[in-house]
Amino acid sequence: MDAMENLMSRNSVPPKLLSEPAPENEVLQEILNTAVRAPDHGAIQPWRFHIVRGEARARLAEIFVEALLKRDPDAPEAAITKERNRTKFAPIVIVACTEVTTDHPNVPPVEQIVSTGAAVQNIMNAAHSKGYGSFLSTGKNAQDPYVKQAFNLTDKDEIVGFVYLGTPKPGLSAKPRPDVAEFCTEWTGAAAAAE
After folding, report:
1. Closest Cα partner for 146 from 65, 87, 73?
2. Does 112 fall in a domain?
3. Is residue 192 one of the residues assigned to a domain?
4. How many independent structural domains does the chain possess?
């Protein structure tokens, strides 16, 4: 498949629709190598990727449960079960983080976070090119200090997302996409009238 076909055919695959096998060894390394080719102003290399698989997935789920109970000690059992099952299906979870440099004179934190986001997109596109499915999740766990601490992140650092990887189960239909024209305008330099 050529590059444009790969980009145009990629769909997010919900974790419940991912299964074994996961990318392993050289294939996983090749997928991860695409991440460090993301735009990186200042060559800061802000990205950190924690590969979670096997029994470590259950431990990550327990960290999600513990974080939930710290946020809401009276969380209903259904919410606890949802967190406990969050990492159950996809064989690999990549925790994509940004170690933010706050004192760089030319590269603000937002650029570093965007760089990690671009790295995540590279991972997802590369996985698709190899026949694997992926899903990016954020939510409260990505912002939770307890979860961040599990990955040795400080308050200034960010979890950009949890990338779920595996083989898509059969029968997944393509997601309808919007018309790009709805989101594009040609700017001519004229200032908008103030209201």
Report:
1. 65
2. yes
3. no
4. 1
Does any domain span residue 195?
no
Q: What does the pLDDT read at residue 103? A: 92
Q: Is residue 188 part of a domain?
A: no
d(CA 132, CA 24): 11
Could you tell me the pTM of the whole model? 0.92
Residue 31's closest CA among 39, 40, 22? 22
CATH at residue 158: 3.40.109.10
More confident residue, 166 or 6: 166
- Domain holding 120, by residue range, is 3-183
Q: What is the mean pLDDT of residues 51-59?
A: 97
Per-residue pLDDT tens over the stretch 111-153: 999 999 999 999 999 999 999 999 999 999 999 999 999 999 9
